[in-house]
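Pasting as-is:
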Amino acid sequence: MIGQRVTRQRVAIAELLESVDEFRSAQQIHQMLQQRGQEIGLATVYRTLNAMVEQGQLEVLLQPTGEHTYLRCEPRGEHHHHLVCRTCGRTVDVAAPELEQLVEALAAQHDFRDVEHSIDFLGTCQDCARA
């Protein structure tokens, strides 16, 4: 983690997130760490997650409840979005070139430069829809 001291807490959080393939809240991450026998304070979990987001190591998704959730995505070198199941949390990375073109067109139409965006799609996956 560039720019941060490498502590056992930061290493434990990073290792845990390597094994998680769904967006998780800080509280869920804290609970998972405790289940693994890692004694890390909730405030430390929040600080570490926020630092990892700032460094581009994690993506953050704001849930409809207002809660922030976190996920480590594979480095792709390109901007992408997510399909997230509201029920089970299953997350799928999706490229959306059409959406990127729309953002560029909207920015140009309104004379904006260096536009950033974060768009994720919430729905119900096929397995949860069947249940």
